[in-house]
Design a protein that fits this description.
mainly beta; Jelly Rolls; 2 domains; seven-stranded antiparallel beta sheet; five-stranded antiparallel beta sheet; 1 helix; 1% helix; disordered N terminus
């Protein structure tokens, strides 16, 4: 295990991110009403509701490798979310259903996954986000079973709509291969406690693992290889103030046991009997790295724009009473959050 060097946003070869600079929901039932100052966005077919997001990608300083749009769902739905590019000719304080910008062509972003409450929804925006500039998206659902999402007016800043952009390395010479990497953030993460077996410990800034109290942590990532040969896959977790001499073990979740209801000790996902990795000693305030290449290489599924993505579901369990606390994705600073980094060789663009 080792410490990880964090990449500053907008650094060539790294990951830039920008939160929405404007967002608003629109409702067909109140076609002339502006909802630009509400704390929740909405996507629904009946009653019809659409939401709109604006992002400023500033000066990226390098070509775009890939881009992901992430929104945080506060309610679940059996339906799936779609987003589409629209013009930037709208403002948060004046947009309504009657004057909202309509889809005018271009790639439609979508995911086949139903929406889970207290989870991030991730859409591949690579075909739309090609460089510096302003990007606006409409967001809706074809199902009457709609869902709500955190807006930038919420006090929960870490859950605001965000556009993540992986950039090409600065040493990318046309016609050659260069090592690139892509940072993936969890779409679901939580811990459960045996002392509160029926409680959902929602949106905690820490993830605990302990045998004494009985606490386990779960997190999942949506991964889309998109035809790339993954050379390495590294999971990074950052410990908080207190470390441990006996770190937890990392496990695969038994397929099919993680459901939208799996958020308490009594309903938690089942773990495979054999661990993937063991952390050993975990110093305080240190990013611990675990090689999970074998879990990622060669796998495929049906998620993502290219239909090759899959969801990686992991759990942490300890057999020691000397527990440990990790930062969760709900922490306000991106530098502390769990991350899964994929490394691959990529042809440099002409």
């Amino acid at each position: 295990m080792s410490q990880e060097q964090e990449v500053h946003p907008a650094t060539p070869g790294g990951t830039a991110y920008t939160r929405a600079s404007a967002d608003a929901r629109t409702d067909a039932s109140s076609a002339d009403t502006n909802y630009g100052d509400t704390t929740r966005l909405r996507a629904d077919a009946s009653p019809a509701a659409e939401s709109f997001l604006l992002f400023d990608t500033w000066v990226l300083g390098a070509p775009v490798n890939n881009a992901k749009l992430r929104v945080y769902a506060t309610t679940g739905s059996e339906g799936t979310l779609a987003a589409w590019p629209v013009s930037n000719d709208w403002t948060e304080s004046t947009i309504t259903w009657a004057n909202r910008p309509l889809y005018s062509g271009g790639p439609v972003l979508h995911t086949p996954l139903p929406i889970e409450d207290e989870s991030w929804v991730e859409l591949d925006a690579t075909e739309v986000v090609q460089g510096d500039g302003l990007y606006s998206f409409g967001m809706g659902m074809g199902s009457s079973d709609g869902a709500s999402f955190v807006s930038r007016n919420s006090t929960l800043e870490s859950l605001w709509p965000t556009l993540y952009i992986n950039l090409e390395p600065s040493n990318c010479t046309p016609g050659t291969l260069v090592e690139s990497h892509e940072v993936n953030l969890p779409d679901r993460a939580f811990y459960v406690s045996e002392s509160s077996p029926d409680s959902r410990l929602s949106r905690q800034t820490s993830m605990w693992v302990d045998a004494d109290v009985g606490r386990e942590t779960f997190l999942s990532f949506i991964i889309d290889p998109r035809g790339r040969d993954i050379k390495r896959a590294v999971l990074g977790l950052r410990s908080r103030d207190d470390g441990t001499k006996h770190g937890p073990k990392l496990y695969n979740v038994v397929p099919g046991t993680w459901t939208p209801q799996s958020r308490t000790w009594n309903t938690r996902p089942q773990l495979e009997p054999t661990p993937i990795a063991e952390l050993g000693e975990v110093p305080p305030s240190t990013r611990m790295l675990m090689d999970v290449t074998d879990l990622v290489r060669g796998r495929s599924g049906t998620l993502g724009t290219n239909g090759t993505g899959f969801r990686l579901e992991l759990g942490l369990r300890s057999d020691s009473s000397d527990g440990v606390e990790f930062y969760s994705p709900y922490h306000g600073q991106d530098v502390y959050r769990p991350k899964l980094t994929l490394y691959f060789d990529r042809p440099c663009p002409p």
